[in-house]
Amino acid sequence: MKDEKSTARSLQSADTERRNAADVEDGQAGSGAPLIPVLHEAPTARAGTGIRVLKRNMKRNGSRGCVTRKTRLGSRERDWLKGDAQRGCVCLYGASEPQPPASGPQTSSGAQPDLKLVLCSTSTTAEELCAQRDVQGLYLQLHGDFIRRLDPSERPLQMVYDYLTAMGYEDPLRVQQEAANSDLSCMIRFYSEKPVNADQQERTLLKGVFSVRKGKTQLHKWAERQVILCGTSLIVASVKDSLTGKMHILPLVGGKVEEVKRRQHCLMFSSAGPQAQTYYVNFDTLADYQRWHRQASKVVSQTISLVDLSCYSLEEVPEYLFYCQDVTHLNLRHNFMSLDGPGGLVNFSRFAQLRSLNLSHNGLGVFPESLCEIQTLTELYLSCNGLGTVPARLENLQSLQTLCLDGNRLDSLPEELGSLVQLCSLGLSFNNFPHVPSMVERLAALDKLAMAGNRVETLDLSSLLRMTHIKSIDLRLNGLRCVKSETLEPVKHLTQLDLRDNQLTSLDLSAACSLETLQCQRNRLGALTLSGFTLRTLHASHNRLTTVNIYPVPNQLTHMDLSRNLLEYLPDWVCDSRKIEVLDVSRNLLSELPARLLSSLSLRKLLAGNNRLERLADLLDHIPLETLDLQHNKLRELPESFFYKALNLKYLNVSANALETIPPSSQSEESLSTLQELYLTGNNLNENCAALLVGHQNLRVLHMAYNQLQSFPASKLSKLEVLEELNLSGNKLKAIPSTVSSCKRLHTLITHSNHISVFPEVLSLPEIKLVDVSCNEQTEILLPDSLPSTLQELDLTGNSSLMLEHKTLNLFSHISTLKLDQKPAVTAGDAQGTSSLWDHGYAEMCGQRNKLCVSVLAVDRFGDSPEAAYGIFDGDRNEEVSRLLQCTMGDVLAEEIQHSSVDSVYMCNTFLASHRKLGMAGQKLGASALLCYIHHESSEPGRYFSLTVANVGTCQAVLCRDGQPLALSKVFSLEQSAEEMERVKLAKAIITEDNKVSGVTCCSRLLGCSYLFPWVLPKPWVHTEPLCSQDEFLILGNKALFQKVSYQEAVSTVLAVRDPRAAAKKLCTLAQSYGCRDNVGAVVVALHIGEDSCTCEPPLLNTEARGPPLPISVSPGDPATPSSSSGIASEFNSEMSASEVGSEAGSTASDEHPSSGPTARPERRCSLHPTATLCNTGPVTSLGPGAHPALFQRQPSSATFSSNQSDNGLDSDDEAPLEGVISNGSKLEVEVDIHCCAFQLRSGPPESPKDLDGRHDSRASDYPNSKMRRQNSVVVSATNGCLLAVCGREISDLKKSPSTSSLFGKKLSNGSVVALEDSHNIIEVALEAPKKKSGYFAAPAQQDPEDQLIIPPSLEQDVREQLRGQSPVVPGPPAPSTPPSARDPNWDPPQPTVPGLHPTTVLQQDVYDTAL
């Protein structure tokens, strides 16, 4: 990784001001004891540095290494920081800090970490900080990984600023604030002493004084000796506690280590060979015995004398390692090895038998010439060390066979290296070579030359004639424009050539007569000419080929990929090839396939999808074809004899054609078909075709979605006994035959978007895992007494008439993912407001993966005005990061839009802040993310709404405008973005042959994966598109969706369906039927924005104060899970709910540092979109006829279940049900949605002018036109006969009490929160799926946003009647004068109390930190 020193900018901003010690504001510890920071002013520090140290008392919160800092800077410190943007705060950690999991197993430590906050400037050097702290040196740790010592001249604060600027922050003030954020310690951290890792020490060196006896006989006595286990040998000193005498060396590789049963804690160490020596070592404790036994067992099990000390942050090797004279392979990759010192590189010549040395990623800067003295070396790896030159002395290594110099800054090699006669492999990739070095011609043994990622623009084949020894050349990613040959002499030695990802327009390699493998994907080739004498493999996809000329006929060719070109026909030589087994010609312009090709006696796999085929020629008998893909063509029929001639066919995909029937499986009743997977989605097949499938008795996967099936023959389905996956979605089925119970191996049944009214009889199948009957006409479900334990997902959404009893819900409680309908519930104002402007639907499918790594954020009403936010997050192979982003990104966006009115600024900062909040989970894991924000656009009165889209990774957004797709996002993939590819190359990343950064990800921008910085960045692409009446809908999808479904097909699909939920389901189903085996997710947002949608006018500034309704607070660490808010499904996930993931990660945006400069956009208001008024913050005893009407508002529910019968009579048949109350048998539940309630504000009737004027305060002057949120509002809970009102800091104390924790709501597994009841009050929980706690990661703990319970207006009178007979209300203090979310806790000075309100103390926001 690039050294931080090289990125430091030379900013000379000396600070000549010194201040005295200042008073520091402070919070309270969890125990109630105040934490008083002490300000230390070092007398030795120079006056120009301005160094101040704040020593913080820390309290561990018990969450896997997380440390909570409950203090903040004083007013003088804040003023000093505000004086200059080049000033800041550096956090220095002590050596007692535990190591993160990246460096070894996480162990709990009782030691309190020593953390000091040092105020300094960007010109302060590490040497000055060390002198002030009286320490030997400072250490830098990036992303919880490796730790290196800082050079004395390096400037820590400037390094942090450079890091944040490289991430994407542009505003210097924001950089200053982010640098002081404690969450940043998960990405960049400074230590005053080098942390010690016990596991690392164990694997590097073990030593101690133990009782030792030599030999197996009893002649030798036990004696106390110094014993050392290092590298490959056991070292025993001849004198106790002394290493100056004779040392006994026992090589252990290939030897034995055994337990001695006659003595306690005793091991026998034996070397290998006929003259093996033996030592007995008796350990004092069991821990020592186990540690030595574990490490010695690894050594003796090796077949070669290998010492692996990679990734240990070593500056030198242990000196004892030089006693291991049998070491042949030494791996020191990812360290910080120095030249000097007892264990430095200058002493490596002491290894007498060393053959392989790996020093990659050590930040050497210069080539260590001392390595040229190790004459025994055969392999030398020096990748990614920033080397600019190679010394000529390297010619001394005459035994060298492999030399790897990838990822450096080399542009030439000394001619002396031509004397390395045994060198056979030379790695020069990702350097700056403009041409192939001339000295390569003299390397007679060289057969493999790797020069990917250089600057070679022209390749002369005649120069290869002089390199008669080279067989393989890698020239990908060079910007190669021309391959020429100035002579007709053939190049006979070259067998493998890699020219991928260049800029070639034509390629003639007919002179390379011995070429076996050619890779030339992703060029601009229009013509390709090759020699076919020895050609075996050809990869030429993603070009513009109209013809391919190969002469003579390539009879050795076995694999050819010509996909994504412009071929209109296949050359004749393709049919003449005798050994071709795999042929990919998909996504071309082919109108027919030659009959000779289909009847080939060697072809086993043919991919010809996305062409223009109208018919398929007849086949010969018994062809070996096993896989045939003909999707997205114009086929109307298949040959009648197709199936009983292609008897070896196992996979057939003819989706998206115009088939009206399929051929029979055989000519007789007895079938020999071996077909296992059949995809028929998107044709015109009817139920008669289903009867023809009975002969395929080996069929495991059957997709017949979106055809014209009205029924499925019951007798035929029963014969498909080995069927495992059945997809019949999008047909006209009214029922699934009961004979489906005969398919005993069935694990997936997908039948959404039909007319099915009776639940399929599949819940008795022993292997059933997934059942999707959404978007049907289900009315009831008849269940067996018990459900199979294998059932993991059940989707019942879109069945408006479905009623579930309480018994049914209890039976479903063990299902990991249960998707049920939300009952749409909106107020009269909302009915004409947001719901008429847009609504959404989404679908997520696991495919053939065991877990779902795609998450969706969908908020139809974002904030207190008609705005919306939608997002999709794809973790690829991990689900943790996508769940975290689902839980946090909405709140982060709500926070950022208060600080800036510039779209590109607040969206970019949203991504960067979300990246930081991932904490430890984001160090090694990452996710693609896309966020869409529909908002007001006041700058153009003619266009009321705008859509701002930001994304990283491969998630994409498409807008349908006037029936045509409009791409709004940018794909950050190395293969699809030349700019990103060049940026990553300039950063000297190693891009592997599968086009992945360091072999990890193909994306150049992600949220998370911070250990790949600076190659992979979190800065997003941001685009704002004004919306108009021609915009019909918006599609969001992950990589897997748009790999299989084009933009145009996606738009056409949604236009044909219209219903957002059904459209999203169809998109995912189509992707799976087209061959997607990965997770797939889609969000469809229907837009109803007309020119007359709104008559808003800009309001007068500072005339209204707004606040959210009274919230019900959720226990810390349980934020609400984002889910749909307009009738789309919610999920009950008992395995790991998204809200539980959020509790691991902490809150979302409560600790952001607001910027007081920019103001929010002015609001436009109309009768459809009234301004939300400030809620009544007085004592709740004022409830009565004159109570404030805004106290009771309604929100959609997260999960509702209805029944016709109720024990309490509130929802009986003879009485009109109360709106907003859902009965579940004997249970009763009020609809509530606390989905993303930290930023979900509700509108209410305006207050009287008198009430409104009394609520104006100083916030209007400090934050004009800003969107305010009140996070310390009164909490209301009706429990056990009293209405409890609590405000402010007392809430957290009450939540911790077991006796009062139930007052603050119970959290459902889908993220919803409802208040608990002990008796028969109005709010009860209908269902709570069991949860499994997960402790995979411990992200930085943050404050949780307070979630809100809004009581519908129609229930106001009923609640009042219940409250009249109950005990008096406990009054609570009024709301705080200043919303913490809108005030900077670290930089702003204290504000005066609000006039007109009761004086209260401004609650300071807690600042948290993570200690790795």
Describe this structure in words.
The chain is of the alpha/beta class and 1412 residues long. The chain has 26 helices and 63 strands. The protein has a 24-stranded mixed β-sheet, with no helix packed on it. The protein has a seven-stranded mixed β-sheet with strand order 1-2-6-5-9-7-8. Strand 15 and strand 16 form a beta hairpin. The longest helix is centred in the middle third of the chain and has 17 residues, at 880-896. It is globular and about 90 Å long. The relative contact order is 0.07.
Give a concise summary.
The chain has 1412 residues and is an alpha/beta fold.
Give the topology, please.
Blueprint: E1 38-40, E2 52-56, E3 59-60, E4 66-68, H1 75-82, E5 87-93, E6 115-121, H2 126-133, E7 139-142, E8 147-149, H3 156-167, H4 172-179, E9 188-191, H5 198-204, E10 205-214, E11 223-230, E12 233-239, E13 242-251, E14 256-259, E15 266-270, E16 278-282, H6 286-300, E17 306-308, E18 329-331, E19 356-358, E20 379-381, E21 402-404, E22 425-427, E23 448-450, E24 458-460, H7 461-464, E25 472-474, E26 482-484, E27 496-498, E28 506-509, E29 517-519, E30 527-531, E31 537-539, E32 547-551, E33 559-561, H8 572-576, E34 582-584, H9 595-598, E35 605-607, E36 627-629, H10 642-645, E37 651-653, E38 677-679, H11 687-691, E39 701-703, H12 714-717, E40 725-727, E41 748-750, E42 770-772, E43 793-795, H13 806-811, E44 817-820, H14 828-831, E45 838-845, E46 854-859, E47 868-874, H15 880-896, H16 903-917, H17 921-924, E48 926-936, E49 945-952, E50 956-961, E51 964-967, H18 978-986, E52 1007-1008, E53 1021-1026, E54 1031-1037, H19 1039-1044, H20 1047-1057, H21 1060-1073, E55 1080-1087, E56 1130-1133, H22 1138-1145, E57 1221-1224, E58 1227-1230, ...
Parallel strand pairs: 5-9, 17-18, 18-19, 19-20, 20-21, 21-22, 22-23, 23-25, 24-26, 25-27, 27-29, 28-30, 29-31, 30-32, 31-33, 33-34, 34-35, 35-36, 36-37, 37-38, 38-39, 39-40, 40-41, 41-42, 42-43, 43-44
Antiparallel strand pairs: 1-2, 2-6, 3-4, 4-63, 5-6, 7-8, 7-9, 10-11, 10-16, 11-12, 12-13, 14-15, 15-16, 44-56, 45-55, 46-47, 47-48, 48-49, 48-52, 49-53, 50-51, 50-54, 54-55, 57-58, 59-60, 61-62
Helix pairs in contact: 3-4, 15-16, 15-22, 20-21
